[in-house]
Amino acid sequence: MTRTTPTPGDTASSSPEALEERLAEIRRNVTGLREEIAATFLGHSNALDLLLQTLFAGGHALLEGAPGLGKTTLVKAAARSLDLDFQRIQFTPDLMPADILGARILEETPGGGHSFRFEKGPLFTQVVLADEINRATPRTQSALLEAMGERQITIYGESFHLAEPFFVIGTQNPIEMEGTYPLPEAQLDRFLCRIDLENPSQSDLERILSHTTGSQAAEIHATLCRDDVLAIRALVREIPASNEVITRVARLIRATDPRNPDAPERVRRLLRCGASPRGGQAVLLLAKARALIAGRPFVSDEDLDAVVRPALRHRLVLGYEAEATGLHPDELVDEAWEAARE
After folding, report:
1. Neighbouring residues of 178: CB distance < 8 A, sequence distance ≥ 6
2. Are strands 61-64 and 167-172 parallel, antiparallel or unpaired?
């Protein structure tokens, strides 16, 4: 595989012409990656874009949708097209931390003695599909939390660093709550974005039925390798955001705080807790990744408009009235964003 993605730090010292060429190259590479995934994952183009933006922003994604909408198909296709190590973990109530972290195994040595050998668990990989993550107990969920936040695993007092890129995609079914353990706010906040999968349109459904009931499945080829992903991640951090953009994002986060007297009336009345500074970081990183993928060396209003909902919808803690009426967090995100732009 030919690696043509620019190395970290190139944007800082490049001429405008060289920078434009590098951005165009990234756009071509990511377009090829997107086409490989889209050959298997049909429809939901926005969900695919958000997943790639999350990957290149260096975060983790939470996929939420009813069964049968293609959550697992999307993640498996992305892993194959990225030429990265992949593990799928089916979360169940009896899953223990050692089942995902690893365990020490007592074995006999050649001299007749005994010693412990550490057997690594499935988290020692690069792309992790945490399927139905809310079915595991809080104890197992917390074991995953350290890996997501610290990029390391600690077991028996010994820490093991995870190889980069380390990308966790959790899935959960929002309509079946029996036998589940809802993720606590602290763990939800570790996901850079929440991607909601809706039912496909009529035309997308026809394509899905046509392509998935035939005799031949689409073959996926790896288009980006580990070094490519790490280089793009480094370049995302170098995409500048103007002072005006940063101020607007800060105002957005403040506008989700129900204790802020300047927040919209419904935010103050219907929310128990708003987004933290980590939510603002998520908005900016996703916007930068979106700009880079589009071949632009700056963050635009269009980028912000596209990412505020997935970056913040899972960070808002609804009050009793909002939950009782079935209010979707996106409505309050939109009101806060509108107030931040005034």
Report:
1. none
2. parallel
Rounded CA gap, 63 and 173, in Å?
Answer: 9
Q: Which residue has the tokens 């939901």?
A: 44
Enclosing H/E stretch for 232:
helix 226-238
- Identify which of 34, 39, 29, 33 has the alpha carbon closest to the alpha carbon of residue 4: 29
Helix, strand, coil shares, percent, the chain, to 5: 50, 15, 35
Domains of the chain in start order, with CATH, are 33-234 (3.40.50.300), 239-342 (1.10.8.80)
At 266, is the secondary structure helix, strand, or coil? helix
The pTM of this model reads 0.89
pLDDT per position as a tens digit, 74-86: 998 898 899 889 9
* Model confidence at 7: pLDDT above 80: no
Three-state secondary-structure class, residue 120: strand
Sign of the Cα pseudo-torsion (7, 284, 331, 306, in order): negative
CA atoms within 13 Å, Cβ hemisphere of 314: 28
The span from the CA of 251 to the CA of 83, in Å, is 40
Q: What is the mean pLDDT of residues 253-278?
A: 95
In sequence order, what E strands does the chain have? 61-64, 86-90, 102-108, 114-120, 127-131, 152-155, 158-161, 167-172, 193-196, 271-273, 317-318
Pairing type for strands 114-120 and 102-108 reads antiparallel
* Number of helices (H), then strands (E), in the chain: 15, 11
SS3 category, 275: coil
**3-state SS, residue 96:** coil
* Cβ proximity of 248 and 284 under 8 Å: no
